[in-house]
Design a protein that fits this description.
binds zinc ion, single chain, six-stranded parallel beta sheet, alpha/beta, binds nicotinamide-adenine-dinucleotide, 16% strand
Amino acid sequence: MMQRTIPVRLKRVVNRSYAVRVEVGIVDSLPEFFRRNWGRRRIFIITDTNVGRLYGRRLLRALSLSGLDASMLDFPAGEESKNAAVVFALHSQLLGLGIRRDSCIVALGGGVVGDVAGFVAATVLRGISFIQVPTTLLAQVDSSVGGKVGIDHPKGKNLIGAFHQPVAVFVDPAVLKTLPVTEFKNGLAEMVKIAAAVDKRLFGRIERRAGVIRRGNERLLGSLLVRAIELKAAVVEKDEFDAGLRAVLNFGHTLAHAIEASSGYSIKHGAAVAMGMASEARIAMRMGLLRESDFKRLLLVMRALGLPVKFPRITSRPKFLFALSADKKASGNRLKFTLLKGIGHAVVGVEVPTPFILELLNGSR
Ligand SMILES: NC(=O)c1ccc[n+]([C@@H]2O[C@H](COP(=O)([O-])OP(=O)(O)OC[C@H]3O[C@@H](n4cnc5c(N)ncnc54)[C@H](O)[C@@H]3O)[C@@H](O)[C@H]2O)c1
Ligand SMILES: [Zn+2]
């Protein structure tokens, strides 16, 4: 039989770079952005029920008043909505409304909206443009930049997804005013994470101003956000598809994922990350990787920000260990941690001997 090998030579020639704009009140300038860049193409805002009520309707009205062709779709707020049924319902509504390849989706909301709307944008008509307008601190500091979008599966969180970068990100610190305190703290946990992992100067700034940050000072938050986003962008630029280096952002997250899962997701991501960071730092100290003084510094900052640092009581050990092993499978059958060597210096791919994990669990009883 004839045999041939036919090469399919693909080169990425599209420039998918984008800008993240941080400015108080920037949500109000979206109509102007669309008028300049989008012309008569259609805009679909996707949001959740809370954010739709707080900011979505106002944005929709402003876009319409500017003569733009905009519609809004929402789904019930909360992690429970990050599923295939919600995504499929959004697909159906968008197709029903006549979405086209040149339309644009605006993800207006927290990390859940960003992940769901981003995944819808990545999949509808094989992928269309989308814009992130993050409205929680967590989404502003972390999830809206980097292009990871997706949903949960009964087998675990974020198991179905894609890499789909937004075409622009608009970060408005003013919307944080309406954010519940617990949600605000969830975002602070991710801010501490990135500082502790890669930037000791940012960590120092957070350390010195913890009290003011906690009270939600808009200007200070804005400037810390800018730095945190710059750091995230730099990591994403070096490792867009999570081939290795991006794992520095996983500090605190290996334990956090297991804490979230074994609590049946009653402990939210940000809180779990705070607990995970404290415990992973303790492990790093016990392994002789991190100085005790740095460990104490980290704990002090987290306490000053009102973040939980105690490893939670694990009601089901098997569930916890199973969740940890799920992370292990995902990374080639080895349980790898991202641990701190110092403040602002995380190292990836550290194997942690089991006794250290058991020590944590025993301490939590
Ligand atoms: N894609 C990524 O890179 C990435 C990174 C980190 C986290 N995530 C995902 O992000 C999700 C968590 O995101 P989250 O913490 O933003 O939760 P969320 O999106 O559920 O928002 C939290 C709550 O705050 C409400 N809300 C949002 N903005 C508000 C505002 N300005 N005022 C008042 N209420 C507001 C929401 O309606 C919701 O009830 C998780 O699913 C996590 O997996 C993704
Ligand atoms: Zn996180």
